[in-house]
């Protein structure tokens, strides 16, 4: 017996709301970029910014100013103390600029300072991380490259998988490599190289009429940008665990998109010229809606357990996954498939819908 939350024959006109969905997504992303601009960029963790991070647990709630004053004598530069994790955990993060001292020496100095200045606090040092600025910059570049190559390989796979145009996908990859090579000759930074590469990938997909690849890439970029935007608005740190979450989100979102695309392709083969493309997309989304809700729901329950019970170290990773799963499910319905209609006209011949049908407007949109 197959479990279905949505009754067979359900016909929700999702395409009717696609422009509103575009506006909502654009508003979140623009707000996130404004937040990044105001803050001078993302708030990088120690992995990317360099420096040291000391996580300390106390037996009772503490004032961050008292902790800051307690470690003054250690000699750390640009010290910032902030609460870490949930309030009842009584955990605090002591961050500072890079220090040339040995890791164990800093740990011992911090423990001595806390014992001297906060003797009744019941402290314990949970972990200490140190990363040099050059290593942090290299990690940032590698993280951006990982995300970019994931998106590129997704575009190539979708082009061959759904449109049987492996040659065109190869030409797209070659064109992208040529564009990046030219930009490198002009000395473009890693960040601008990745941004330019994403723009070139989208442009090549559009020009070469790789419509399924275009829809999948736009949806994946949407999910990444929404996650980054909300993390900036929530003032969360970006570190390697968040990059791991973003890469996981890419795969999750693509999986959901492929299910809908498969159903669209099946209907294209069966319907031929007999169904307007907008109506065909709506039907495909409705038929896969039960599967989408069940998959997203079970995944959300698992990630929510990580978020609430996984501890402070994995808290931000779980939050990124929660945002990404919701954004990925949303984009599969309101971004990836509608893009085929709005930017992929001519994929299938249009036919006039019968008068009075609910999908006539969607077919003409």
Average pLDDT, to the nearest integer? 81
Largest sheet: 4 strands, antiparallel
Order of helices and strands: HEHEHEEHEHHHHEHHHHH
Structural class: alpha+beta
Q: What is the overall number of helices? A: 13
Distance between the termini: 38 Å
Question: How many strands in all?
Answer: 6
Helix content: 55-70%
Poorly predicted runs are 346-365
Rounded to an integer in angstroms, the radius of gyration calculated over CA atoms is 25 Å
Strand order of the largest sheet: 3-4-2-5
Strand content: 5-15%
Tell me, what's the shape?
Answer: elongated
Protein architecture, described:
This protein is an alpha+beta fold. Helix content is 65%, strand content 8%. It contains 13 helices and 6 strands. The strands form 2 sheets. The protein has a 4-stranded antiparallel sheet. Strands 1-6 form a two-stranded parallel ribbon. A hairpin with a 6-residue loop joins strand 3 and strand 4. Helix 1 crosses helix 8 and helix 8 runs antiparallel to helix 9. It is elongated, with a radius of gyration of 25 Å. The chain starts with 17 loop residues before the first helix and ends with a helix. The C terminus is likely disordered.
């Amino acid at each position: 017996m197959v479990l279905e939350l949505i009754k067979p024959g359900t016909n929700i006109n999702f395409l009717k709301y696609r422009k509103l969905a575009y506006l909502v997504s654009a508003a979140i992303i623009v707000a996130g970029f404004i937040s990044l601009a105001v803050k001078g960029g993302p708030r990088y963790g120690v992995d990317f910014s360099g420096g040291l991070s000391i996580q300390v647990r106390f037996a009772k709630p503490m004032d961050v100013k008292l902790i800051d004053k307690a470690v003054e004598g250690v000699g750390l530069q640009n010290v910032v103390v902030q609460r870490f994790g949930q309030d009842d955990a009584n955990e605090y993060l002591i961050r500072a600029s890079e220090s040339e001292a040995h890791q164990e020496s800093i740990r011992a100095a911090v423990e001595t300072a806390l014992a001297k200045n906060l003797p009744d606090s019941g402290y314990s040092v949970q972990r200490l991380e140190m990363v040099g600025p050059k290593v942090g910059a290299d990690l940032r570049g590698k993280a951006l490259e990982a995300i970019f190559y994931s998106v590129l390989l997704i575009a190539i796979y979708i082009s061959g998988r759904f449109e049987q145009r492996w040659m065109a996908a190869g030409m797209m990859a070659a064109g992208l490599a040529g564009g990046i090579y030219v930009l490198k000759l002009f000395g473009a930074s890693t960040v601008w190289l990745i941004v330019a590469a994403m723009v070139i990938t989208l442009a090549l997909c559009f020009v070469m009429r790789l419509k399924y690849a275009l829809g999948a890439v736009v949806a994946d970029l949407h999910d990444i940008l929404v996650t980054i935007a909300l993390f900036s608005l929530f003032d969360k740190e970006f570190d390697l665990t968040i990059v791991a979450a973003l890469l996981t989100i890419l795969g999750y979102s693509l999986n959901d998109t492929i299910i809908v695309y498969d159903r669209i392709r099946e209907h294209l083969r069966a319907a031929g010229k007999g169904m307007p493309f907008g109506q065909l997309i709506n039907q495909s989304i409705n038929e896969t809606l039960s599967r989408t809700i069940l998959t997203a729901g079970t995944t959300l329950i698992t990630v929510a357990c990580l978020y609430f019970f996984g501890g402070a170290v994995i808290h931000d990773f779980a939050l990124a996954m929660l945002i990404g799963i919701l954004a990925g499910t949303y984009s599969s319905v309101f971004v990836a498939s509608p893009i085929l209609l709005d930017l992929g006209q001519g994929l299938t011949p249009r036919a006039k819908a019968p008068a009075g049908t609910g999908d006539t407007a969607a077919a003409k949109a």
